[in-house]
Design a protein that fits this description.
Helices cover 21% and strands 37% of the residues. The chain has 5 helices and 24 strands.
Length: 423
Amino acid sequence: MSRTVSATHARVAALVVLVGCCAILATSALTYTDPVAASAASSTAETNVTFVSTQGRLGTLGEGRIVAFDTDRRTAVWTHTAYDRYFDVDPMGNDRLLFAAVEAEPGVGAGTTYAVVVNWRTGERVERFRVAPDVHDVDYLGDGEYLVADKFHHTVYVRNLTLGDIVWRYNFTKQFPASAGNGPPTTGTEYTHLNDVDPVDNGSAFLVSPRNFDRVVLINRSAERVEWTLGAQDDHSVLREQHNPTLVETDPPTVLVADSENDRVVEYTRTNGTWERTWLFDRGLNWPRDADRLPNGNTLVADTRNQRALEVDPNGSVVWEVRIPEMPYDAERLRHGDEPGGPTARSLGAMGTVDATESQSAVDWLGRRVVEVHAVARWVLPPWVSVADFVVLVVGASTLFGWVGAEAALRARPVVGRLRRVE
């Protein structure tokens, strides 16, 4: 009898927990408002604009977008949603944007990737051409030439639209050993995962980010050779699957890079063939995928899993931040164009957060782990699921599975008893 009463009490308790969890989650879902769409305005007259592109969640299409927001007020003034996923976005003058984006098409699977130029003020599409699947970055060189980081074929190439042909190409599979990257160096694999390429020295060289090489390389265009390399495969103390490096200064070479898997932004300076880390920002980041040094010395960051863009000063203090749902990928300031070459940290006498020390209690440690797991889960969870909602979701799911398991055990127990009596 007591066993039956205990089981009934347990069922009631589980039901109360499940009803409470469902009520909390339903309230969050029904009251959620898109922080970008809610503040979107029709005016595009602003000049102090920051663009942020978003990739969207895994397994879904149609959620990516580019958001232009007024940097001073942190309110959206324009959005672009004609494509399903967006990657690198480059301002071209005051009116035009160049970006790489994926468009879903029937029967094409993951969709078709395009390089697109639009007049963001008028909405006019100026240029569009198809590129390889999942290309993340395309840059304009001038005179009808576009520079493409082709991660599908592990190549960087220059395409001249006027001639309708590729006029320059660098193939990583022919220049690096198979052991340099992830998986076999064949078409469509994750061997390089080229995610960024930038022209430097007026296009005489290209700064390239083969993410899965854990390194950044500078390629001489005319000689088709690597001038220098920052990082090395599996040397995660330097870089770990980085994104979107920027050459802040050429002499001495100084690189600012979103060190994604290390959850930090770092700057390195090369002197006498040796790289020295000269700046670090690592407070509260979760898989940053873009960092630009602005002319005022601040650094603009796209913090992907924290769903935000932020600007930090040379000492690592956050100047402002804005929430951008659906996995932000790239952030650019309109007035400074693509990849602004701001001052180096050394010239500013700044080190960022390199000397920061933080004590961490067991509660703090657990809280950070929950935040990290939630950030990864956001790739598949809807945007309204906050950290608190995620905890409620885990509690509810654990209660449900525990209840189902307990009921199964109770049902199996009499069967076992009957079998023993038969024996």
